[in-house]
Structure formats: structure tokens, C-alpha cells
Amino acid sequence: MHRKILIILSFFGIIGCEKMLMSPQPEADLESIFQLMWETLDEKYSFFELKNIDWDLVADTFSTKIRPEMSDQQLFDVLAEMLYVLRDGHTNLVSEFDLSRNWRWYLDHPDNFDADLVMRNYLQENARISGALRHQVIDSVLYIQYGSFASPISGANLNVVLQRADSCKGVIIDVRHNGGGSLGNALFLASAFIKETQNVYSVQERKGPGRNDFSALQSVQLSPHPRAFTGPVVVLINRRSYSASTYFATMMKYNEHIKLMGDSTGGGGGTPIDAELPNGWRYRFSTTRTFDRRGFSLEPGVAPDIEVHMTEASRLQGIDDIIEAALAHIKAL
Hints:
333 residues, 7-stranded mixed beta sheet, 4-stranded mixed beta sheet, 2 domains, alpha/beta
């Protein structure tokens, strides 16, 4: 299927959330390893201002913890603790024995999703599976679950879903617990539910050396799929809707026939690059910042138009409050 997607590509192109590569560095002592990581982030990380991070103070705090006799584990722990300050799910340190991460962007929030409940009581055994898309008609509404934007969608997959949607009163797209993946997949899916060509977000690359030195904003434009469904649509989101799912939510937001429902997405509004330290450890961090069409940063997450949370009482009865609210919203139109 020909994809009528008009995209004004920024420096990173359509890969969006996928990694870019920085060259490895020569061997160095522990203090040099620390300094290299700190300086690289100082020159390229994109959210110091947004998150009110004093990176010079971070250097003063953590440099005193570096000692020549440190073990690999001790060095890893100091570097990981420094990265944790960034509060960024796209920032990791990877060694042969550990992976650093900051998951507070969802751990501090309610889950608002139960995969087993959805499979048993909503998708059920006779749901259709078209590539990465699982879908079921529930009370004349097409429910679509997409578990990961890392899983591709073909034109044929999307045509099956759109053909099924034609006979339905509305569509629910569930990207809860979708941790991201390819922006190409997000753009392709969003094109199937918009009515007109529109700028969906804008992006800047950190250009250093100043911490607020960025390239000019580059807009990303999206056009409707030839068979786009333009009836009522509800997109279900939660805090574990991250990275490409946050982008997908902002692509869908501000269209009058589309509502976001659930909890805010987890964010992940910066493209990470991948770099290597002299000892062979790899690390990644965000180097861009992205804004929706009204100028709001995607990094903190995209808020729902209609906030709904699952309750434990409903879950124990096999009820997903967010799906039920979406069904009620569409049927009331």
C-alpha cells in the first residue's frame, strides 16, 4: 500500500526513537572515563533547562566519588547514579554485568492496564491478529490493541483493520503499555485516522556548546491514508505509553473527532544517541527535544483529553474502566 505520508525530515529522519552511533574512545583512566561521559552529556543532552538540572553541580557531586582503586561495579554504580539525575527513560549505561535505567516515569504512577484481563474479556479468543494489530468488534466499536511500535505494520495489515472499521460506529486504539519503537510505524498508523494534512510535531537537535544551543525547529507533516477512518476515535494511553507512543498520542491530539483517554503518557520526547566509553561500556541519552503543534514539550508526556483510571474493584470483576469509558463515549455520540 502506498503510504501518503508527507514528512519534513529533521536530521534524524524517520527512525525517530531508534539509536544513532558515536565513535568509541581510546582507553583512559577512571577519572577520564567519568569526565568523558560528563562532557559528552554537557555538550549534547537536550533537557537540562526543561528539568532544571544543574549539570555543573552534578559534576562537583559525583567526581569526588571516583577513586583509582574502584572496581568495575563501583565505577558503574557512580556513573549510573549520575545518569539517574537526568530522569530520562531514554538514558542508560550498559555493561556486560548490568543495565542502568530510570523507570520512575511509570513506577510512580498507577498501572491502568491488565493485559490478561483485556485478552480474556475484551479481545477474547476469536480476536483477529493482523500483523502487530489485534482487533475485536465490541458493541459495534472496533477495539485495536497495538503492543509495541517496534513491531511493523504492513499496508495489508492496516487495510484489514480499516475495512473492518468501515462498518463500526467508532474505533478504540489501545497503546497502553506500548513502550515505543519506530516513529515510522506511529506515523503510518496515525495517518489512517486523520482527516487532513497537518503538522503533527516539531523537533530540534542539541547543537552545543551552550546548553540551550539548538538547531532550528523542523516540522513533521502527516497526510491522511487514502482509506482513512474519520469517524469517532478514542486512543487509550497510560504512563507506560512511552517514546513512539507519546509521539503517536501527540499526532492524534487536537483532531476534533479523536480523544485521548486514560492517564498521561510517560514521555520520551527526545531522540537518544548511542556512545561508547573507553572501557567498552555503552551509554545513550536524549539529544533532541520535540514539541507538539501548540508548543508543548513531549518529554513530560501527553495528557489525556479525558482522564480515566482503572479501579481495583472493577479489575477484580474483570472490567477495564478505561475501555468501558471509551465504549460509552463513542456510543453516546
